[in-house]
Amino acid sequence: MEKIKVAILGSGNIGTDLMYKLLKTEGSMELALMAGIDPESEGLKRANELQIPITAEGIHGILEHDDIKIVFDATSAKAHITHALLLKEAGIVAIDLTPAAVGPYVVPAINLKDHLELDNVNMISCSGQATTPLVYAVNRVAPVKYSEIIATISSVSVGPGTRQNLDEFTLTTANACQEIGGAKSARAIPVINSAEPPIMMNNTVYAVLEENADEKAVIESIEQIVQEVQKYVPGYRLKRAPYIDIRHTPWGDLPTVIILNEVEGAGDFFPTYAGNLDIMTAAAVQVGEQFAAHILKKKGVIV
Q1: In this protein, which residues make up the domain named Semialdehyde dehydrogenase NAD-binding (predicted)?
Q2: Which end of the chain is more exposed for a tag (fewer CB within 10 A), N or C?
């Protein structure tokens, strides 16, 4: 079967983990190039060992290949602003794993097929991929007045790129909880924990409701979305049953849904505690596969 050639831009933690996932994915994509800017980076070295073509010329190394149709950008928000323009001019679809948010937010469990005619989509952040589905699940049953998410991740799973973009990650995650999660307002609070042994990714979601809601319906909606996410991130799960409690809020005493979630990674590159890497890259693969299949269908290839 014909496959769509794709490239990874960025040879850090996220790009390297994505590489391993793409290599084990049997679908419509072929990893044709790994691009970075540091020839001594571990990601480029590993790609070379796996006989994947590499370049240390960054985006310009990718643009030399006119057969590449999709690029996964795992660099930085600032860099992606430039990359997005260059990729658009070259007619290449950009799947943005930075918090630049040039294109619309995409969460596979919510809106996987909504933006296939566009040339740039954004994967939000690791915490955005983990918590936006939970806010969405509550909001589709009971309108959410305010959502607050606290994402706790292990320090050793957070690379320099993520640390440099922490403010952008926070804003982008909160925006996603509003724009596709449905909350009227939102806040995201990241916590980088340096505990040893490293902790697994844990997320707490508070969803303040406009009014009383059917608790059973809310819980069923949450459990359903968890099952959807588990289709591409098997280690995504609830730590306990969600529940509704009356909490004192700035708007008065209102019903609040409390959700405790953890994400265990697949261990493709980093150990399994790095669920924050896993959910981001696994979600990106799902989105890339949809774009690749869409490109093939437009060419008349039956997928």
Answers
A1: 5-118
A2: N
